[in-house]
């Protein structure tokens, strides 16, 4: 009996310790998020039951609750035998109220509209469709999740780092006594991706264990944290400029900004930086910056490697539409491969939210007289054409306000083509361009500025656009083609075969205004016979051949006309081709499979990172000049030749994640710097790998690159986990235009394979782009 009482007493004591530990963790994390005492955070921490929906027959109650790290959502079924599952708020791409996903629309009734909501994840993870017990509760879940996610996204990299390290410490404290034993310290170091031998771990532990009691507590853990997070490379830089009693005055900071960062700033701006970044109020009053304030400045978004001036639309948007590179997607409806992968309206939403401005709709006759979208003659699933148009309308201009081109691959009967036209006109309304802008026949494209918030249709047209103003100017009606017909015609020409043409509904033809699809019969024929609005699509192989063998002709063609490039049909896995040679040739619509994570999509994301992520990038002047002599292959002298020498010192990395959770080994990171652009500029250089340290590896390796055409160059930083027996494992990357680089000491954020930010990870580099002598 006494034994049972002692066990109960010990159990109650442990429970109280655990509760105190949990409350302390919640207070710390809530404070970091700026949400102490916040009712929305409290609601999520309390949690509640939600109905999870997978199908008409599979609807089951699950309990959802935010964990004490204020970052991880935990849920379990009512069957206690089943294990609980987690996902982090950082995994969430969006939270949508109502029946906005295909699953909820398909498997639930309109009666639950106000109680339904969905959590959409980054990458290929399936949506989480949920139904709350009341409309009020559903609104509370949506608003609370959005609020916490918003606050988390507003943390700078240093704050995210502190959040991550603190919660790794919590996980290492197995018995939740707020103390750290030697064994727990070893576990913690392994958890944060750093391997140390027993002697070093023992030395580190004894250095911090000032009370000599065999565990770290309170101030000792703080001391351990300070040792762990010390940035020696920052200490050296700070010490070189902290000339005012060991601190950095406004003048000292100005000297650093002018000498190292090569920024054009004033003393008043240096004072303003101190006021924004300095954490020590006493130092701030004296207009001094401590080392912590200096580190805070280096972590600010405007201090990163990407020029903050390029975060907004800064280019001239009043040029004709064909004078821009346009972010473009191929087979936009697919979530995966093009043989048996699912089609989804969600794929359109994801592409549009990534600033894609040209999406593809592969249209076929559907049952019930409703046209559908899918990859024809394959096992890919189908979606209704009208559902795709509705999704496009709702999400087209949330990221960018500039025009969206709907590229139609039309395989429908005349009757269903009429329905396609009806759906686009009725759903898109006045946003759809159904006639040329102005009162007379245009001679060139309107600008992105003039077309803000508008939709253009790319497809076949029965006659010339001039017929709208002059009925006698009908032109040839059988010249319009789809890209698949263009591809098939190439094969038919090789076999001397004729291919029958698809009949076209007048209603659909009439809304094709600025993007009429036509055959390409050579540059000379295009110049003589085609109007500015008549454009051709090129399969990647033919396009690359033209870009390599007839580069200047291709560039001049693209000064007047639009060109769309698309992947070869043999890419059944939805892989991608290198878009850079096509951009070098002035091609505007270089369409890629957005659904496929790959280095080519990294380049596309990097190219369109600038200009406010508008999806439009103004081509350099020599790609907009009909008399241009520019040839990216031969690279003769001209305005494009602006030889730069790029010096990059890869200094260190911070908190690189272990991507393969099944491997027990620690990351052995290396960094590769790649340059893409004209052939003369293409280059890459790589650091040595650092063994067993993904937490704070240091390289201090210097690289030098010659860049001859900086307008077209992209710089890509890649971090990999070295493996001597197999291929290196990808950790993260960051790609940006050469002309968006900032000089000096800069942090480089890292993106995962899906193009999403790795919250606490990054590189620290020194960069200097100089004119060649």
Concise structural overview:
It contains 23 helices and 30 strands. The chain has 773 residues and is an alpha+beta fold.
Strand tally, please?
30
Give the CATH level 1 class of the largest domain.
Alpha Beta
pLDDT averaged over residues: 89
Number of domains: 5
Main location: cytoplasm
Binding site for Ca(2+) 4: 666, 668, 692
Binding site for substrate: 52-79, 458, 460, 537, 564
Active site: 330, 375
Can you offer a commentary on this structure?
Residues 475-495 have a biased composition (Acidic residues). One of its GO terms (biological process) is lipid catabolic process. The active site is at 330, 375. With 773 residues, the protein is of the alpha+beta class. The N and C termini lie far apart (90 Å). Strand 3 and strand 4 (85-88) form a beta hairpin. An 11-stranded mixed beta sheet has the order 15-14-13-16-17-18-19-20-21-12-22. It contains 23 helices and 30 strands. The longest helix is centred in the N-terminal third of the chain and has 31 residues, at 2-32. It folds into 5 domains: 22-154, PH-domain like (Roll); 158-229, EF-hand (Recoverin, domain 1, Orthogonal Bundle); 232-303, Orthogonal Bundle (Recoverin, domain 1); 321-470 and 478-487 and 501-623, TIM Barrel (Alpha-Beta Barrel), CATH 3.20.20; 644-771, Immunoglobulin-like, CATH 2.60.40.
């Amino acid at each position: 009996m006494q034994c049972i009482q002692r066990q109960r007493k010990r159990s109650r004591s442990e429970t109280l310790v655990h509760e105190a530990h949990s409350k302390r963790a919640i207070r710390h994390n809530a404070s970091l998020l700026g949400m102490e005492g916040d009712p929305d955070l409290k609601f999520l921490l309390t949690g509640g039951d939600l109905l999870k929906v997978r199908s008409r027959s599979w609807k089951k109650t699950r309990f959802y609750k935010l964990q004490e790290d204020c970052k991880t959502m935990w849920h379990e079924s009512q069957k206690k035998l089943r294990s609980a599952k987690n996902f982090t708020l950082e995994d969430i791409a969006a939270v949508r109220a109502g029946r906005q996903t295909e699953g909820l629309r398909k498997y639930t009734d309109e009666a639950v509209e106000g109680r339904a909501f969905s959590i959409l994840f980054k990458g290929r993870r399936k949506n989480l469709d949920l139904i709350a017990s009341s409309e009020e509760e559903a609104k509370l879940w949506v608003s609370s999740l959005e609020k916490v996610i918003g606050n988390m996204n507003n943390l700078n990299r240093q704050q995210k780092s502190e959040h991550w390290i603190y919660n790794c410490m919590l996980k290492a404290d197995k018995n939740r006594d707020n103390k750290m034993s030697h064994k727990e310290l070893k576990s913690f170091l392994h958890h944060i991706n750093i391997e140390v031998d027993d002697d070093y771990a023992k030395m580190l532990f004894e250095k911090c264990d000032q009370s000599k009691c065999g565990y770290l507590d309170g101030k000792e853990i703080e001391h351990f944290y300070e040792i762990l997070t010390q940035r020696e490379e920052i200490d050296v830089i700070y010490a070189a400029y902290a000339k005012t009693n060991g601190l950095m005055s406004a003048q000292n900071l100005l000297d650093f900004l002018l000498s190292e960062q090569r920024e054009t700033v004033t003393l008043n701006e240096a004072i303003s930086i101190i006021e924004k970044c300095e954490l020590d109020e006493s130092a701030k009053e004296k207009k001094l910056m401590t080392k912590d304030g200096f580190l805070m400045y280096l972590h600010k978004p405007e201090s990163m490697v990407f020029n903050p001036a390029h975060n907004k639309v800064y280019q001239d948007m009043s040029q004709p539409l064909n004078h821009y590179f346009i972010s473009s997607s191929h087979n936009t409806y697919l979530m995966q491969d093009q043989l048996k992968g699912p089609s989804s309206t969600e794929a359109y939403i994801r592409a549009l939210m990534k600033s894609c401005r040209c999406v593809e709709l592969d249209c076929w006759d559907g049952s019930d007289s409703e046209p559908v979208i899918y990859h024809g003659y394959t096992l890919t699933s189908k979606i209704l054409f009208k559902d795709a148009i509705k999704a496009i309308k709702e999400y087209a201009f949330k990221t960018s306000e500039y025009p969206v081109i709907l590229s139609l691959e039309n395989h429908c009967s005349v009757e269903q083509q009429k329905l396609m036209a009806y759906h686009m006109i009725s759903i898109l309304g006045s946003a759809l361009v159904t006639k040329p802008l102005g009162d007379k026949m245009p001679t060139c494209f309107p600008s992105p500025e003039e077309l803000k918030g508008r939709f253009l249709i790319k497809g076949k047209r029965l006659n010339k656009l001039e017929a709208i103003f002059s009925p006698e100017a009908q032109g040839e009606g059988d010249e319009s083609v789809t890209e698949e017909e263009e591809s098939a015609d190439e094969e038919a020409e090789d076999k001397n075969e004729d291919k029958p043409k698809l009949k076209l509904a007048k209603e659909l033809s009439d809304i094709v205004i600025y993007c009429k699809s036509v055959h390409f019969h050579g540059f000379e024929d295009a110049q003589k016979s085609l109007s500015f609005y008549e454009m051709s699509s090129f399969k990647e192989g033919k396009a690359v051949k033209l870009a390599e063998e007839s580069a200047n002709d291709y560039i001049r063609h693209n000064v007047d006309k639009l060109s769309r490039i698309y992947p070869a049909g043999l890419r059944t896995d939805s892989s991608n081709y290198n878009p850079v040679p096509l951009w070098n040739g002035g091609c505007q619509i270089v369409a890629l499979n957005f659904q496929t994570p790959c280095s080519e999509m990294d380049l596309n994301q990097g190219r369109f990172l600038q200009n406010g992520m508008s999806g439009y990038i103004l081509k350099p002047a020599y790609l907009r000049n009909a008399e241009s002599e520019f040839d990216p292959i031969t690279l003769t002298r001209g305005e494009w030749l602006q030889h730069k020498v790029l010096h990059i010192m890869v200094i260190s990395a911070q908190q690189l994640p272990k991507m393969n959770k099944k491997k027990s080994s620690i990351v052995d990171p290396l960094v590769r710097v790649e340059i893409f652009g004209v052939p003369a500029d293409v280059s890459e250089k790589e650091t040595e790998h650092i063994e067993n340290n993904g937490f704070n590896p240091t390289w201090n390796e210097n690289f030098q690159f010659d860049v001859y055409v900086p307008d077209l160059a992209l710089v890509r930083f890649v971090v990999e986990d070295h493996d001597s027996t197999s291929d290196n494992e990808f950790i993260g990357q960051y790609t940006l235009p050469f002309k968006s680089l900032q000089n000096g000491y800069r942090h480089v954020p890292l993106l995962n394979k899906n193009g999403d930010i790795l919250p606490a990870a990054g590189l620290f580099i020194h960069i200097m782009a100089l004119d060649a002598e």
